[in-house]
Specification:
Number of helices: 13
Largest sheet: 2 strands, parallel
Distance between the termini: 32 Å
Order of helices and strands: HHHHHHEHHHEHHHH
Helix content: over 70%
Shape: globular
Length: 285
């Protein structure tokens, strides 16, 4: 589990800050999920290609990672430290192939195209492809975290439905925000447009996506009171950090988004985190 903590410290300031607000019983498990997701994401986002692996070799590496995850969940052990830590979390929280299989399916969708005439073309995602990709790459991660948070609780059908909807909405919001802020890198380096077809997005598209994200964040915010107290501050913090990022994107032209990555300044992150903690403390008195 120490290896997972190193991964999250190295890759994410916002998510890392939020996880530090989790109760101790949740914190290592959420880090284990993040670490596996990050390793798989790096595998398909150009690191292996930069190392000289062919398309077939990258696909094989991803397949072997998925197989090792499934095997480790079944038996409880892997010599791969990140996979081993994730498997311990999966076994404790009831995370199974119903969540890991869609995740790896989305990762396969990110593999570079084979050497064909289409390999250098911008790849667009239509509405159906976008929905399937976001479910596998982000919504299931929200559902994994939810299973961690509620692993010691017995939920009735209505509670489970509401919490799962909130978890999926929050995951989708996070992913869609990242699509907007990573337009330059996704387009120029990876040749992908997750938010449309092969056409360049317009400011009208940006406004539509911001509205969609705001609705997803509102759905997630509505179920915060249903979360365990020792998970609520962290989830609220992550939600509010992405809400602040969404607000900045709403005030940034599409041309700027294609030129630079929008971020929330450190001072504003500190304010958001402090207010999220204060709000949660006030609720739980």
């Amino acid at each position: 589990m120490r290896a997972s903590a190193v991964v999250i410290r190295s890759y994410s300031t916002s998510f890392g800050a939020a996880t530090r607000l989790l109760g101790q019983r949740h914190r290592p498990h959420v880090r284990n999920v993040y670490a596996l997701v990050r390793v798989a994401d790096e595998l398909v986002d150009g690191v292996t290609e930069g190392a000289g692996l062919t398309h077939e070799e990258q696909a094989d590496a991803l397949q072997r990672l998925e197989a090792e995850v499934c095997r480790a969940i079944d038996c409880g052990y892997s010599s791969d430290l990140i996979v081993h830590a994730f498997a311990q979390t999966a076994r404790a929280a009831g995370i199974d192939a119903s969540l890991t299989a869609p995740f790896f399916a989305s990762m396969r969708a990110d593999l570079p195209a084979p050497n064909t005439d289409e390999a250098d073309q911008l790849r667009g995602f239509d509405a159906e492809q976008h929905g399937a990709y976001v479910y596998g790459s982000a919504e299931v991660v929200g559902l994994m975290c939810l299973r961690i948070f509620t692993r010691d609780r017995s939920l009735d059908a209505l509670e489970q439905h509401r919490l799962e909807r909130g978890a999926r909405s929050l995951g989708a919001a996070f992913q869609n925000v990242n699509f907007l802020r990573d337009l330059a890198d996704d387009t120029d380096r990876l040749g992908r447009n997750y938010l449309g077809t092969q056409e360049r997005l317009t400011d009208a598209d940006r406004i539509d996506w911001v509205r969609r994200i705001e609705a997803e964040l509102a759905d997630a915010r509505a179920v915060l009171p249903l979360l365990p107290k020792d998970a609520r501050a962290a989830v609220r913090c992550a939600l509010n950090l992405f809400a602040a990022l969404t607000h900045r994107i709403s005030r940034t032209s599409i041309d700027e988004l294609y030129a630079r990555r929008v971020r929330v300044p450190d001072w504003q992150k500190t304010v958001v985190i402090s207010r999220s903690i204060a709000r949660t403390v006030a609720e739980t008195r």
